[in-house]
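Appendix B. Raw example, untouched.
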Amino acid sequence: MNNKLLEIGKIVRPHGIKGAVKVIAYLDDVNFSIFKKIYIGNKLEIANIKKVMHLNKDAYSLAIDIIPDIETAEKYRNQSIYIDRTEYKEFKDKIYLSDLIGVSVLDENNKKIGELVDFDDFGASVILQIKTGAVTYSLPFVEDIIYFDETLNAFVTTNEKFEDFKV
């Protein structure tokens, strides 16, 4: 995926009969009304947000110019929404976990033991998916277990802590 693009949410279903879609936001404390041009799905279709209605904590109803009716809205179900982070100063220099896919995981001796291949954000906790050879392990993203070192541009853990999660 393009590094300048940031995934901001996902269309979960149509919202009403006029083509609006319900979107679950992936960003905390960001009002979706600041976004105008977005990119949708794996094809990164360019679209413009016409209207935003905040539904609850992390859900929005969006009217999008390329989605004129409920039938079209249904076709966009489960599609991710991205923005070009270079167009928004508040996102330009931030590092997100999605930016770190493919980054090495090192042990305490800076020896590579794997790489980040995915993550699951459950709200209260984030689980990192670390691939070592042909096997993928899940580690909670907790500073006592694993952390990101910006100077090394890598995740760091200890062999002992990593071994605890290989069971």
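End of appendix B.
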